[in-house]
Specification:
Largest sheet: 3 strands, antiparallel
Number of helices: 13
Number of strands: 3
Helix content: 55-70%
Order of helices and strands: HEEEHHHHHHHHHHHH
């Protein structure tokens, strides 16, 4: 092989290697390392939330940070078969879809409307934090951002209020853990303050408060822990996937075939025209020919 050919081959190999570049995992025969840590040293020494942090952030968290993240992950695993994603996983199983297909079908609906409030709330908090960093007082920054969101057509502030719970039981518990972490110096508490300022602002002048819900509380935690807002939905999906898997497996165990959203004894509401006869048309001749006569 000539020197020129060898150089060309080396350039091709280098180009192929550069096609996918990653800081995440290094794999060779007999060797696997995540972010530089040999996998056999991680196994048995780090928790799953710590592993998520390492994969997303590049470094291992402190144990207090990992515990706070774990609390948020635990809180959002499930909200019952009336949640569309959970219902879809169960219906898919009754249609003969395998477990992975049922999970994928359910995860695919976790978008802006269903499953997106946590990330949207992180974006809200981030906008308010930026105004505060610019010198605005927390109350005025909160009012300004909320006003802009309403002008843009946002009717329901993500992360606050709940269609099932007058007070979401998960939120006060999570906020209490954040307060403990602030007292211990593990987080600084600025996003907890922002979340509470939003609750104050949207509740002002109302007969009852609009309390923070699970999405608002987990948004506080993920923001306190420094996660990018764009990761909010992905982390939520990691959590909710546990519930999706559990419900899909339970439905597999229960059996059932082609179950829709309602039992057949409960009909849907038809809102179209009443029964009517098909017009008496002469279908033997083209309409255009009839009209030309």
């Amino acid at each position: 092989m000539s020197e020129r050919t060898a150089q060309q081959l080396e350039a091709v190999v280098e180009s192929a290697q550069d096609w996918w570049s990653t800081d995440i995992v290094d794999i060779h025969p007999g060797y696997i390392a995540m972010r530089g840590y040999p996998i056999e040293e991680l196994i048995g020494h780090v928790t799953f939330p710590e592993m998520i942090w390492l994969m997303l952030r590049g470094e291992l968290p402190t144990r207090p940070q990992a515990r706070l993240m774990e609390a948020a992950l635990v809180s959002a695993v499930d909200h019952g078969p009336h949640a569309p994603s959970i219902a879809i996983s169960r219906m898919a199983m009754t249609c003969g879809v395998p477990l992975n297909g049922a999970m994928a079908s359910a995860i695919n609906v976790l978008d802006d409307v269903h499953g997106g409030a946590g990330q949207q709330c992180m974006e809200l908090y981030s906008e308010i934090a930026a105004r505060v960093d610019g010198g605005a007082a927390l109350a005025s920054a909160t009012a300004e951002v909320l006003g802009e969101w309403r002008t843009q057509g946002v009717r329901y502030v993500p992360g606050f209020g709940h269609r099932w719970h007058p007070l979401d039981p998960r939120a006060p518990r999570l906020l209490g853990l954040v307060d403990d972490a602030v007292a211990a110096g593990d987080v600084d508490g600025r996003y907890a303050a922002i979340g509470r300022a939003v609750e104050d602002a949207i509740s002002a002048g109302r007969p009852a408060r609009i309390p923070m819900n699970i999405d608002g509380a987990t948004a506080v935690i993920y923001s306190e822990l420094g996660f990018a807002t764009e990761l909010g939905r992905g982390i939520f999906i990691l959590s909710r996937s546990v519930g999706i898997l559990a419900h899909a497996w339970e439905q597999h165990s229960q059996g059932g075939r082609i179950k829709g959203p309602m039992p057949k004894t409960i009909p849907y509401r038809y809102t179209g025209p009443a029964r009517r006869a098909v017009p008496d048309l002469d279908l033997t001749e083209p309409t255009a020919d009839k009209e030309s006569r």
